[in-house]
Amino acid sequence: MTADWRADRIGTALRGENPTVLRQLGAGFAVIGDIQFLPGYSVLLTDTPGVERLTDLPRLRRLAYLSDLDRLGEAVERACRAADPAFRRVNIEILGNKDPFLHTHVWPRYDWEPEHLVEKPVWLYPPTHWGDPQHALGPAHDALRAAIAAELDGLASSA
Known about the structure:
It is built from four helices and five strands; from the N terminus they run αβββαββαα. By secondary structure, it is of the alpha+beta class. It has a five-stranded antiparallel beta sheet. A hairpin with a 3-residue loop joins strand 1 and strand 2.
């Protein structure tokens, strides 16, 4: 993966050039996170350039985005539970403090996390976790990536 697509995550997703895209959904893109210190970490990106906040979307589009979020959250939960018996839960957060576009973090949480962090927000992990090459998205995550995508597909057909 090159860093070029990171400068315009939504534009590259719309053009089919964002390598993290799992699926295009009704109002956004389900993507696997660039970092995977919590395996299965995913993000829902809006598919509407220029949207910074959930409330920037018209109500019907907002509801579609939240429906996509529900689907991605459940897909991550199912895939991570099947992959790791220490799966604990999923945390979902809309922050937008750093990246000025609507996106939602879907964090799987595990019982094997350090005791002082397992019950805390993921943002309290040390800065070394965020940029460490050992946690970078790569081929080691292909199976979990495929499992999340398959769950997204299954949830779409059961809707």
